[in-house]
Design a protein that fits this description.
By secondary structure, this protein is α/β, with parallel strands linked by helices. The chain has 2 domains: 29-115, Leucine Dehydrogenase, chain A, domain 1 (Rossmann fold); 141-264, NAD(P)-binding Rossmann-like Domain (Rossmann fold, 3-Layer(aba) Sandwich). It contains 10 helices and 11 strands. A 6-stranded parallel β-sheet has the order 1-11-8-7-5-6. A 3-stranded parallel β-sheet has the order 3-2-4, with helices on both faces. The chain has a two-stranded antiparallel sheet with strand order 9-10. The chain is globular and about 50 Å long. It starts with a strand and ends in an 8-residue tail after the last helix. The relative contact order is 0.17. This is Bifunctional protein FolD.
Length: 291
């Protein structure tokens, strides 16, 4: 068996095109385009690339991009003051602070300071909580993007056994909640899991999100399983790889995402959808975190 590739780039392009059509329709009806404020602290090379990709996606969809490039010496108080200004600005629909932030800034405090109604990353505890009680609004971009990739295969998710490797607040935990919402039976694995291999061997769906190169061995994959590799790791030679042994896993899986070109593009495409949705929710009178 050789796995079929889930092409995140092409699926993301379709998603971006759909968002652009909706934005264009707003403009034709005399409504304004959504706007996304992206805050970058410092000049970390990876973060700079991620932010550039988000701003390019704004151009593709007609979403107004507001750039805030701040020095790494920006204080926590200064960053919080900027976020408060953006929260109060009715012309700003989404706020994103690119992570990681400098060590002297508490990321949890920054996430919680962004209005839940403008939390287009889907990281705010309120938005994660709504997902947990099956009332999602602004959903975490990467996990929701993964659901769309899974749906693109045409496989029915209802009743499937899914294993998520990694339990971070940004990816692993909301990923498990998304899979539960889709009707899967979900197991979350982490550093204290006693037998990672055994858990993966029985899984119909494997989502690797640990950030450890080749943690998931190819011969652990159940024949015919779907493998989603969220991990992106830069090796000593400068090459990128995921958390899964791609070549070996491809010989057993039915479907698999590549790294790069799999989950990453869908994260950005879903961010654009969230920015439009944030505006539409506010226009409807729904202020998240107060209902």
């Amino acid at each position: 068996m050789t796995a079929q590739i889930i092409n995140g780039k092409s699926i993301a392009e379709v998603t971006l095109s759909e968002t652009k059509s909706l934005v264009d329709k707003r403009l034709q009806n005399g409504l304004r385009a959504p706007s996304l404020a992206v805050v970058l602290l410092g000049e970390d090379p990876a973060s700079t690339i991620y932010v550039r990709n988000k701003r390019l996606a704004c151009e593709k969809t007609g979403i107004r991009s507001l750039a805030y490039n701040l020095p790494s010496t920006t204080t926590e108080a200064e960053l919080l003051a900027l976020i408060n200004e953006l929260n109060a600005n009715d012309e700003v629909d989404g706020i994103l602070v690119q992570s990681p932030v400098p060590a002297h800034i508490e990321e949890k405090k920054i996430i919680e300071s962004i209005s839940a109604s403008k939390d287009v990353d889907g990281f705010h505890p309120y938005n994660i909580g709504r997902l947990a009680v099956r009332q999602p609004t602004l959903r975490s971009c990467t996990p929701y993007g993964v659901i769309k990739l899974l749906q693109s295969t045409g496989i029915k998710l209802l009743g499937m056994d899914a294993v998520v490797v990694g339990v971070s607040n940004h990816v692993g935990r909301p990923m498990a909640l998304e899979l539960l919402l889709a009707g899967c039976t979900v197991t979350s694995c982490h550093r204290h899991t006693k037998d990672l291999k055994a858990n993966i061997e029985r899984a119909d769906i494997v989502v690797a999100a640990a950030g450890k190169p080749h943690l998931v061995k190819g011969d652990w994959i159940k024949p015919g399983a779907v493998v989603i590799d969220i991990g992106i790791n830069r090796m000593a030679d400068g090459s990128l790889c995921g958390d899964v042994e791609f070549a070996a896993a491809s010989e057993r899986a039915a479907w698999i995402t590549p790294v790069p070109g799999g989950v990453g593009p869908m994260t950005v495409a879903t961010l654009m959808q969230n920015t439009l949705k944030a505006l539409e929710l506010r226009e409807s009178g729904l202020v998240l975190g107060t209902d």
